[in-house]
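User: Teach me something about this protein's shape.
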Amino acid sequence: MKHRRNPWVAAFLNFIIWGSGYVYIKHRRFLGAGLILVFLLNASLLITIPYSMLLSYSEMLFMWGMFMWFLFSILFAVDVFRETKELRKYEDMD
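Assistant: First, the predicted structure itself:
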């Protein structure tokens, strides 16, 4: 019997760390690994640049970047949720 993956767990993982939900459901693993790498690079960039420098450069640009980060997190979570539901449907047919 195959271990059924929970779509809510996959969505939560993908929301927190991009790509981790894909790795969890063992589908699109290459995409998941790439997204994890992009996530880690972005996070390390945000950690190394002082917050005051980001805000002084352009507060609007910083806020737009954070909005896009949040939006992509939601989109990746929804995508992996739907993907997991589809995979479970095919597992139930077997």
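Now, about its shape. The mean pLDDT is 84. The chain has one domain: 7-93. If you'd like, I can walk through any region in more detail.
User: That's plenty for now, thanks!
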